[in-house]
Write a structure and sequence with these properties.
alpha+beta, 3-stranded antiparallel β-sheet, single chain, 3 helices
């Protein structure tokens, strides 16, 4: 398998494999009879990148990514963009990163300011923070994190799911080890 890479431009941070880099015709040499291709970042066009070590896979990381997969399969399909699903990663220093499904940016989750490259709002950002705490500290999430209701349940939930979709995603999430069981609550 090819080495993982990350774009060297700080505002981009596109993450992928070397084989995913775009091939672009070098316009300086376009008048010549041969074609010259450069391998560049598909997001920003930068031609420099860093080698990125493979993420550390732990049982808790797998549980959190299973929850993201469940969320991506129901209702408005958060964390899914054209079949690409967001993932959480653990680095060698014990820090958690989220690889955004839309921007493909690797976003540091321990930062308290705004997360450049994360394409969701505050509710899902807080859910990612709760999953980060599960990965790092083992703190399970309450089922109330999943498709949370408003004060008046007849108005729907905060995620904008219908009643059936909210019930389906909650039922599927409740089966995962990352979610606190009713007995433990």
């Amino acid at each position: 398998m090819k080495q993982r890479i990350e774009c060297s431009r700080r505002y981009c941070r596109w993450t992928g494999r070397e084989s995913e880099l775009s091939k672009v015709l070098d316009h300086k040499h376009a008048s010549r009879s041969f074609k010259v291709y450069n391998r560049v970042c598909p997001k920003c066009g930068c031609d420099s990148y860093y080698d990125l070590p493979e993420p550390i896979i732990t049982e808790r990381v797998e549980h959190a990514n299973a929850l993201i997969k469940v969320i991506s399969e129901h209702g408005r399909k958060f964390f899914d963009y054209k079949g690409t699903i967001a993932t959480l990663e653990l680095d060698k220093n014990g820090k958690v990163w989220v690889v955004d499904e839309y921007t493909k940016a690797r976003v540091y989750t321990h930062y308290q300011g705004s997360w450049r490259g994360f394409n969701h709002g505050g509710t899902l950002r807080e859910l990612v923070c709760a999953m980060r705490d599960y990965i790092v500290k083992g703190k399970q999430l309450s089922i109330e994190w999943i498709a949370p209701n408003r004060w008046n349940p007849e108005n729907g939930d905060i995620w904008g799911y219908g009643i059936e979709a909210a019930a389906a995603v909650s039922a599927a999430a409740a089966q995962l080890p990352i979610i606190k069981s009713k007995e433990a609550a």
